[in-house]
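note to self: dont lose this again. the chain is below, predicted strucutre after it. 152 aa total, dont forget to put it in the shared folder this time
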Amino acid sequence: MGVLEAVLTTDFSYLRNTVLSSGNLEAGKYTNYTGTGAAIGDAAHYLTYGAEAREDVGKVIVLMSDGYANRPDGNGPGYARAMASYAAGLDVTIHTISLGNDADLVLMQQIADITGGQHFDATGSGWGTLTAQLTEAFEQAAAAIKRVQLVK
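---
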């Protein structure tokens, strides 16, 4: 099951200072597992059927992960691809950002491809390298989405 950190909002100050604060973004916050399929399925469902869903806007998910989908046991990658197909059926586009040296680039590319999204590579290590890679990936994702305000 995915966890909703915040409802859809344009309150960028709230997102930056609360949801994206360093105190809220800690390693292992939920578990040491990556339920990529659940996150995709929940996000696609929320964007389509949630209380704040709007029919007059495009539905886009930016999935940033190492791509190691290990939930459910035994078929995490298959479930992630199945949920990407579910999202595509709801007209949700998923842009993926592969994070870290050991990221599963193939799965992240597949998820983007299934939904008509783009894949961005932010692999690397070290603060400076990873920061530069992530900044570039976020800028590319924002450009792919169009009409997006990148919060820095």
